[in-house]
Amino acid sequence: MAWWKRSGHARLFLRICIFCAAVSSSFFLLNRIGNAALPAAKAYAQADAINFTTSALNEILDTLSYPPVFQIYTDENGAVTSVTTNWAEIQAMKQTVSQQLLLRFAERGTKQFSVPAGSLVGNSFLFGHGPNIKIRALPADSIQTDVHSSFDSAGINQTRYRILLTIQANMQLLLPDGSTDTITLQQEICLAETLIVGHVPSIWN
């Protein structure tokens, strides 16, 4: 009877050891997956966010309706002497784009990616294989914008004057092991442009 009790205790101890080893292995595996997943997860999420943002911005720009933001002045010979820019309208356009883009991100909500585990460990032989690892990208909750002007050649004796809007958004990435990271999305779009023929004139803000 004493032998049976000792044997039972030994089996219980063995089961506890196996359970602890399994738990430790699971935590170790999750940590390895999390570390290996980060670069690939960021690439997946960033590529998807760029495609989404590009499509959303194109739709937003198609709906913008503002009066002309440039006023071009010429001399008696028709040569351009100056160009004025309506920065109040530019700022209104900037605010509209920011608000509409935030709304599109909110409507999309959290985006979940299912990535094969083999694609996250850096081994080409395992790429595309294994169980799917779920990665979530939270919608951007803030957007930073900056407006600047640009001149570039548009042909012989022609200059293109553009007003550009730089957009930057930060998105939180949730990895399988519970860790988080931030991906930064940055894009530049043209709000307005005009073609100047002849020498570059004075630009009045």
How many H/I helices? 2
What sort of overall outline do the alpha carbons produce when their principal axes are compared?
elongated
N to C succession of SSEs: HEEHEEEEEE
Main sheet: strands, sense, barrel: 5 strands, antiparallel
Query: Structural class per helix/strand content?
Result: alpha+beta
Report the C-alpha radius of gyration, rounded. 29 Å
Distance between the termini: 98 Å
Q: On the 0-100 scale, what is the average pLDDT?
A: 75
Give a structural overview:
The chain is α+β, with helices and mostly antiparallel strands. It has 2 helices and 8 strands. Strands 3, 4, 5, 6 and 7 form a 5-stranded antiparallel beta sheet that branches. Strands 1-2-8 form a 3-stranded mixed beta sheet, with no helix packed on it. The chain starts with a helix and ends with a strand.
Secondary-structure map:
Blueprint: H1 2-63, E1 70-74, E2 80-85, H2 87-108, E3 111-116, E4 132-137, E5 143-153, E6 158-174, E7 180-197, E8 202-204
Parallel strand pairs: 2-8
Antiparallel strand pairs: 1-2, 3-4, 4-6, 5-6, 6-7
Helix pairs in contact: 1-2
